[in-house]
Amino acid sequence: MKLYGSYTSPYVRHCRIVLSQIGEDFEFIETDRAGSAIKSPTKRVPFLEDGNICLTDSSAIVKYLREKANTPFLPDIADYDSYCLTNTALDAAANVFFLELDGVGPAQSDYLKRQADRIKSSLDALELKNLAEKAPYNDFELKLGCFLDWGLYRERISLKSYPNLQVFLQGIKQYPYFAATTPPPL
């Protein structure tokens, strides 16, 4: 099994955590934007190859890995909806991040202003969730931890106004599988 990605991607991080949790042997192949454009039809990371299976989305990869290990992937619809909310916020933050690298920010683009508003309203909603303070963490909580940690790492978000999310993040940072996948310093 081969997982392609970067050590800083929150999407890849979630896959790496699940691979470690289930004890699956895998080869991690560090890939940049140019490499993913050649190897993946989505032109992004992560992507996974397992024999004849090639998956190009982190959610599909996590679901596949959970099923392979006979463990559930978000059987509760409320947790699945929270997972989707988190993924939407992460997608919006990634869009703003990459477009700002190209010199375009919310001040220049109504689309990016809407993305910035989406991030804030999502954080507001996530603050109200009943979150685990210690393991075990489900895939919604793992995705949320990856998003929050990446958002702080890339200076995309502030948790100053979100005490529940702060407590949650401090707890998940102690989880060995999460701690082992911390991105390298910038």
From TrEMBL:
InterPro entries xref list: Glutathione_S-Trfase_N, Thioredoxin-like_sf
GST N-terminal domain ranges (all copies): 1-73
Gene3D superfamilies, per database record: 1.20.1050.10, Glutaredoxin
Designated name of the protein: Glutathione S-transferase family protein
Source organism per UniProt: Gilvimarinus gilvus
